[in-house]
Structure formats: structure tokens, C-alpha cells
């Protein structure tokens, strides 16, 4: 039975985590299975992108050099380049959810997460410029081919860009949060989930649209579906866990209180470090 009292949600603050937990976050790695899946997706994406660039070069150095230009072939190749770029970007973004880059490595984080958009620009921009500069097509042909290429560039770029990319630190923090709360990194989710759950019978996941419930680690959940990165834990589950395990909540509260009141360099602090 639900309580009629006010329930205040307390989020895990990284600064309140123990040194062991903070070190665990620093050294966090996704599972070998997720790394393997991510590597496979990245290889396939890279192959598709290479083929897309190859098709672009073929279009530039052969199709546009013909007189007259085989116009239908030009259009087909433009569409094919877009399909290859988009499918590659989808697979690449999926691999980034399975095995994200650390936010602390700024250059790698940017390139890895925006590579799909970068490849799309490389696959289309030179071709678009050369289409409009071509002297063997009339204005109408240039306009149609150029417009198609621009629209497909925008579409491929939109798919390739990641406005809110996942970061390894986020996975580590959320994993530590779940372990601190429940004692283990284990959650439930569905294909349509935006949150992961602590209970497989949670009302938020047991809906008519849910045909299958999955279980695994936090990184497994992030790799399977696109979760709410800011707060992926189901609030219903969290509140229920706190109600059903009040001793755990009290221990966390007492631990945080002692950490807040303990001053750096105190006797207790030195003793804890020695132990």
C-alpha cells in the first residue's frame, strides 16, 4: 500500500561516493560482450562508409566525366551514397551506446560521436560542388541532381550527428548508483523503455505494449535501448526500493552524514585511510 507521507527523492552525488566507488567509476569498462558487439557494428559501418566514399569518387571521376553524362546513373549513385552513409551512421551510433567514449578525452569523444556527420559531409559536399560546376549538364539537370544531393546530405548529416552522446562516465556513475542502492549492478528494461527498472513487475514496464522484459547490467540496458541519459532509473522502482529496504536508506544517510561532518586530516579520516 502506498504511503500517504511525502516521499523525497535523494539522488546519488558523486562527491558523496567512497574513494573505492570513485576509483571504480574511474576504471569502469563495459562488458566484453558489449565491446565485441560494438566492434562488429563499427567494422560494418566503416565498410559501408568506405563504399560510400568509393561511390562518390566513382561518380566524380567517371560519371561526371562522361559526355553526355549518364543522368540516371548519377541520381542512382547519389541515392546509394546516402543509403550507405545513413546505415553506417545508425550502426556507428548503436556501437557508441554499447561502448561509449569517455568524456574526459575531449577530441576522441567529439570525433567518435560525430563521425557519422563528418563522413556524410565528406561523401556529399565535394560531389555537390562538382555537380554545380559541371559544364556537360544544363541548368535544370544541375538543379535537380544538386537539390537531391543537398537534401540527402542534410538527411544523412541529421542521422549521423549525435546531439546528446553517451559517455563512459555516465554509465559508470549510474552503475555505481544502482550498486550503492541495491548492492548489485542489475536492472530490467523493455524495448520501448526510456528508463531501467529495479523490479520486473513494475507497473511502468508491465504495459500492453511490452512483449518482453530484458535483464542485465546498466551498460547492457544503455546498449540495448535509448534511455533517458539524465535520469535513467525508474522513480517508481527507486521509491519502492527505499520503502522496502529502509535499513539500506538509513545506512546510506548515516554514511553520507559522517562523511559530511568528518573534516579532512582528522584522526578518523587518517585511520580510515590507513585501514
Mind explaining what this structure looks like?
The chain is mainly alpha-helical and 275 residues long. The chain has 2 domains: 32-160; 168-262, no CATH class. It contains 10 helices and 2 strands, in the order ααααααββαααα. α3 runs antiparallel to α4 and α3 runs antiparallel to α7. The two termini are 43 Å apart.
Could you give a short description of this structure?
This protein has 275 residues and is mainly alpha-helical. It contains ten helices and two strands; from the N terminus they run ααααααββαααα.
Overall structural class, as computed from helix and strand content, comes to: mainly alpha
Count of DSSP strands? 2
Whole-number average pLDDT?
Answer: 84
Strand arrangement across the biggest beta sheet: 1-2
Break the fold down into its secondary structure elements and pairings.
Layout: H1 19-26, H2 32-61, H3 71-98, H4 106-133, H5 139-160, H6 168-182, E1 187-190, E2 213-216, H7 218-224, H8 235-244, H9 246-261, H10 267-274
Antiparallel strand pairs: 1-2
Helix pairs in contact: 1-6, 2-3, 2-4, 3-4, 3-5, 3-7, 4-5
What are the salient characteristics of this protein?
275 residues
Amino acid at each position: 500500500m502506498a504511503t500517504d507521507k511525502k516521499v523525497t527523492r535523494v539522488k546519488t552525488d558523486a562527491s558523496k561516493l567512497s574513494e573505492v566507488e570513485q576509483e571504480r567509476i574511474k576504471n569502469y569498462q563495459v562488458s566484453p560482450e558489449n565491446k565485441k558487439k560494438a566492434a562488429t557494428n563499427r567494422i560494418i559501418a566503416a565498410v559501408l562508409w568506405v563504399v560510400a566514399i568509393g561511390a562518390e569518387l566513382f561518380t566524380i571521376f567517371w560519371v561526371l566525366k562522361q559526355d553526355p553524362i549518364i543522368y540516371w546513373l548519377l541520381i542512382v549513385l547519389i541515392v546509394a551514397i546516402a543509403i550507405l552513409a545513413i546505415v553506417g551512421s545508425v550502426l556507428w551510433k548503436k556501437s557508441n551506446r554499447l561502448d561509449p567514449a569517455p568524456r574526459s578525452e575531449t577530441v576522441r569523444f567529439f570525433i567518435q560521436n560525430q563521425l557519422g556527420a563528418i563522413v556524410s559531409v565528406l561523401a556529399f559536399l565535394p560531389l555537390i560542388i562538382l555537380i554545380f560546376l559541371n559544364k556537360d549538364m544544363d541548368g535544370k539537370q544541375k538543379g535537380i541532381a544538386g537539390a537531391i544531393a543537398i537534401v540527402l546530405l542534410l538527411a544523412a548529416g541529421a542521422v549521423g550527428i549525435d546531439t546528446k552522446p553517451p559517455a563512459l562516465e555516465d554509465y559508470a556513475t549510474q552503475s555505481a548508483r544502482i550498486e550503492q542502492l541495491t548492492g548489485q549492478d542489475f536492472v530490467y528494461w523493455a524495448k520501448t523503455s526510456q528508463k531501467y527498472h529495479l523490479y520486473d513487475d513494475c507497473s511502468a514496464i508491465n504495459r500492453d505494449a511490452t512483449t518482453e522484459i530484458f535483464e542485465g547490467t546498466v551498460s547492457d540496458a544503455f546498449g540495448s535501448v535509448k534511455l533517458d541519459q539524465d535520469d535513467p532509473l525508474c522513480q517508481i522502482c527507486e521509491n519502492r526500493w527505499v520503502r522496502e529496504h529502509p535499513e539500506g536508506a538509513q545506512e546510506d544517510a548515516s554514511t553520507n552524514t559522517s562523511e559530511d561532518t568528518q573534516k579532512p586530516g582528522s584522526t578518523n579520516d587518517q585511520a580510515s585511510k590507513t585501514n
